[in-house]
Amino acid sequence: MDPADPAAEPEAAAAEPAAEPRTEAAPQAVSGSEAEAGSVSGSEAETVSGSGFEPRADSAGDTAAESPVGADAAAGAPAPAYKPRRRGRTTALIAAAAVLGVVAGAGVGYRIQQQRVPTPLPPLTGPMLAQPKGPGPAVPALPVSQDRAALYDSDLLKLLVPVPKGGKDSVRTYVSMLDFANEFTRPADEFTNLADQEFQRVVHTWWRDSNGVFFEVELSQFRDETTSTASNVLADWMSGITDEPTHGESQTIPTAKDGYVWPSAKPQTKAGYLPEYEGRGLAGVGNIIVQVYVNSTHKVKASTVTSLIDQQLERL
Questions:
Q1: All domains of the chain in start order, with CATH
Q2: What residues in the chain have per-residue pLDDT under 50?
Q3: What are the φ/ψ torsions at residue 264 (nearest 5 degrees)?
Q4: Cα separation of 284 and 290, whole Å?
């Protein structure tokens, strides 16, 4: 090409400005590796230009396109949200493995047991024992003095003391639990107590002598199937008599293991009636409680009550 040619100058002038944007695009890189990459690209471009080759037109565009990404990263863009790993998966796997292990073990054990030969069991009964022929020897019956069952299961009316000669207005009868409860200060409560205390039956008898003294004997029986109820009831009744002001100091009964008598103290007064004195006696024999009442318009001595209760205890 001729240097004097005027048409070549405009082309060279046009070629020089076109190379300037490519050389200025490299400084827009932010820092670090991208800046070094830009400088390397520039040197490579110079080398290529010096060798006579034309540099690639898209290298500067690529550098310009990558520079905004580095700028955003340097600006502190938010990182993506952290998702925690699902829990419970390991526990479920362990539980499933345990269940499968138990089922498999049971199945294998059942299979092994099924294949075994059954062991014969020993006989449940031994050899037949020799039995004597005919009935056994007869057991002699106990005397009445030793047969407590005959005493306590017999007719209580027959165990009451007989009415002495000269006795008047005598009565011998069984008393229902309701009528017996009405003899106490609080009949309703006493009826409930008797039901809880395994009350069985009660009999009584009374009479008057020629002097107008009233005598009464009462036998109360309790079942005593689970506990010794009769002894507990006897203790309760004794404490009630001691607290009454109409009775004097208690005295023991020589013929009874657990018994007392109370002479009269203050008289019982009631409008329209004469003052009345009362003596009491209480004793226990087995599951039977013996009660004795002596009422008179005169003071009742302890010896009078003791004489009557001794007669009743002898019959029991």
A1: 8-67 (no CATH), 149-315 (3.40.1000.70)
A2: 1-74
A3: -75, 155
A4: 6
